[in-house]
Structure formats: structure tokens, C-alpha cells
Amino acid sequence: MQTLTVGLGERSYPIYIGSGLLGQADLLRAHIPRKRVAIVSNTTVAPLYLEKLQYTLQSMGVDSVSIILPDGEAYKTADTLNLIYDGLLTNRCERSTPLIALGGGVVGDMTGYAAATYLRGVPFIQIPTTLLAQVDSSVGGKTGINHPLGKNMIGAFYQPQLVLADTDTLNTLPDNELAAGLAEVIKYGLIRDLPFLEWLELNIEKLLARDTAALQYAIARSCQNKAEVVAADERESGERALLNLGHTFGHAIESGMGYGSWLHGEAVAAGTVMAADLSQRLGWISAQDVARIRRLFESAGLPVVSPDLGTDKYLDLMGLDKKVEGGKIRFVLLKEIGRGVVFGDVPAALLRQTLEACVHA
Ligand code: NAD
Ligand code: GLY
Question: If you take atom 2 of ligand 2, which residue's CA is the nearest one?
Fold first, then answer.
């Protein structure tokens, strides 16, 4: 097992990464002071892992209330959030009752927001079960839900007390979901960790084959990158925005195609290719660099061509992204491979060229 720390002073918390962690009561004990917790999961993950978690909790003398949500990005809504509140209120959960998210990023983001708001805040534990959630969404405290007019538009920064990433859960993850997680892994290499990017280029086959050592290394290295960024800039007033590489375009793809139609990681991959294309048009990276980025996403089984929503539709959808400031879209782009920057002065003509070029193979 590897242990990392997200350093946020009194709100610092550990990330445990390893095999068999769902069965390790001692990792949870310190964070569950009372005899009751509420577990939020979904209809796919609960049949796979809920009983195991409940068994571990029972071995500590802890009872659990379970709230099982419908599965999918399309359910990351206010209505589904309300199901969590319904379950907590019906079962008379108190301010001291920890809320445990057992699932991927959708369950984690919604449970975190419920934890931030139920009784004005209850303790929160992340048990991520997708690669994407283990390398990104469970760490850093961004929580929230979608609005029909924009993704993740309603939310709060609310840090968990603990992240427990049991890598065994990845054995049941569908191949396309594993690939989607790799998009966020590749992101860390592109924005701030060139040696990691080079390692990924050499080891992508092992990751796709679910080689345990390779996966654990990639998860830990990703979490280390994320923890450093979050510790430096928890509320995204600076460096944290780099974690949104490909997301301005990607969120437009996700909401333009209808939530759930493209996986988040797939949209991030195609969106990152757009960001790379735009960086090249600005003269920062070369055509060879863009080709290298496309190759890596392709070798991870991810899309590199964006859907043809129409340029005006893209512009419209991107205008609603949270990364808009003072009417200008602030893009995360690449000054070079391994160095991301936030840039708000993209000439409209170049942006249009990227939007037109990247929807063709
Ligand atoms: P997801 O939560 O929808 O999970 C993907 C699918 O895998 C779902 O069908 C889920 O039920 C299933 N699943 C989960 N664990 C499984 C397992 N072990 N075995 C088999 N099936 C399993 O999607 P995701 O990719 O985990 O997360 C995407 C979400 O995360 C998006 O809503 C995105 O906005 C959010 N996100 C948040 C942050 C953040 O910082 N909070 C960062 C990145 C992404
Ligand atoms: N996934 C982006 C962030 O956590 O800031």
C-alpha cells in the first residue's frame, strides 16, 4: 500500500492506494468515531462492492445506511441529489454521521456535495472505484452536480477526510472506462510531469492490460501530482486551473452530445487534442508535438477527433464553462509538452480554425 497526503493544514488528509484496502478496517477506524455511517453508491457498484464494505464496517461495530442511486452521468442532477438527502433524512442521519462515496466520479461528486450541504456539512470519505476517480475526482474536494445548461455548474469545494483507493476494484471496470481514466492520467504528464508522460508512452500497453504494478504506479504518481496542485491552490485561483486541460472543449462535447453519450475521459481526450491544436496555432508547440499527443491518446484507446457539433454551437457551449472570466474564455494550453499555461487572449480566428479542424480525422 502507498500512502500520500493532501497537505491542507488542519484539513490535510491521507490517500491510501493499494490492493485489498476495502477489507482493511484499520484504515477507516480513525475516521469513523461513532457507530453509524451512510454509504452512497449506485446500481452498478453496490452489487459488486457494497457488501464487502459493509462487512468491514460491521467488523468495527459500525452500522450503515445505504443509499443506492441510478447509474450514469445523466443522473448527476438535482433530482438525484435529492435522493441522497431523502435517504439521510429518512434514516435520521446526524451531523456526526460520515457519508461514504462508494463509486466513480459521478457518485463521488454528488456524495461530496451532499456531504457539504446536508446539515451544513458532515464528514466525508471517498472510496473511488474507477480509474478516473482514483487518479483525479476523489482527490481535491471539488464536488457538485450538472445543470441542464452546463456541466458541474452547481457545487462546492469540500475536502474528504480520507481517500481509500482499492486497486482491486478496477478488475471489474469495463475497458472503455479504464481508457477514460487514462485521459486524466495523461493530463498530469502533459501539464507538469514530462518524465511521467514518457513513462506512460512506454507503459500504456501494461496499463491497458491492467498490470497491477503499472496501475499502482500510475495512480500514485497521478495522485501525487494532484495533491501538490491542490495543496498549492485549493480554490483554483491559479495553478489548479491547469488540471482543466482539455476540459473547456471536453465539457462542450459532453453537454453538446447529451450527458452520458461521451464518457468524461473520452471528451477530455478529444478536447486535449483541440487544446494542443490551438497551442500549435499560437506557435507554442510543433505539429510533431500534436501528433505525439494524438498517438498517446490513440494508443490508450481514446478518441482524438471531436464530434461535429458546429463551430457556433461549440462557442455557445464554451461560453457557459466556469473557466470564462470577464466574457473571455480562459483556455488551458501547452507552452510545451510537460508545461501547461492558462491563456485568455486566444484570437477568435485561431479558435475557429481549431474547432473546424479537429472535427475531422
Ligand atoms: P462514473 O462515475 O460514471 O463511472 C463510470 C461507470 O463505471 C459507471 O457506470 C459506474 O457505475 C461504473 N463503475 C464504477 N466503478 C466500477 C467498478 N469498479 N466496476 C465496474 N463498474 C464500475 O464515471 P467516472 O469516469 O468515474 O467519473 C466521471 C465524473 O467525474 C464526471 O461527472 C466528471 O465531471 C467527474 N470528475 C470530477 C472531478 C473532480 O475533481 N471532482 C475530476 C474529474 C472528473
Ligand atoms: N479535475 C480538476 C480539479 O480537480 O481541479
Answer: 243
CA-to-CA distance for 144 and 148, rounded, in angstroms? Answer: 13
Q: Indicate the range of 187-196, 255-264, 287-296, 298-307 predicted with least confidence.
A: 255-264
Q: What is the DSSP string of 1-42?
A: -EEEEE--GGG-EEEEEETTGGG-HHHHHTT--SSEEEEEEE
Q: Which three cell numbers stand for residue 110?
A: 454528488
3-state DSSP assignment of residue 342: strand
Judge whether residue 126 has pLDDT over 90. Answer: yes
Our answer on whether the CB atom of 280 is closer than 6 Å to any ligand 1 atom is no
- Cα–Cα distance measured from residue 100 to residue 84, given in angstroms and rounded to the nearest whole number: 12
Where do the domains of the chain lie, and which CATH numbers do they carry? Answer: 2-172 (3.40.50.1970), 175-357 (1.20.1090.10)
Within 8 A by CB and 6+ apart from 113, the residues are: 81, 143, 144, 145, 154, 155, 156, 158
Q: Which atom of ligand 2 is nearest to the CA of 243?
A: 2
How much distance in Å is there from the Cα of 242 to the middle of ligand 1? Answer: 21
- Give percent of the chain with pLDDT exceeding 70: 98
C-beta 240 within 6 A of ligand 1: no
Average pLDDT, the chain: 95
77 in contact with ligand 1, CB cutoff 6 A: no
| Prediction pTM value | 0.96
> What are the cell numbers at 54?
459493509
Which whole-number Å values give the CA distances from 321 to 55, 74, 92, 275, 358, in the listed order? 42, 18, 37, 15, 19
Kindly indicate the confidence band of residue 326, based on its pLDDT and cuts at 50, 70 and 90: low
Q: How many residues does the chain have?
A: 361
- The overall longest dimension of the chain from CA atoms, in Å, is 63
Is 337 exposed, middle or buried, given 0-12, 13-18 or 19+ CB atoms closer than 10 A? buried
Residues with CB under 6 A from ligand 2: 136, 140, 142, 240, 243-244
Tell me what pLDDT residue 339 has. Answer: 98
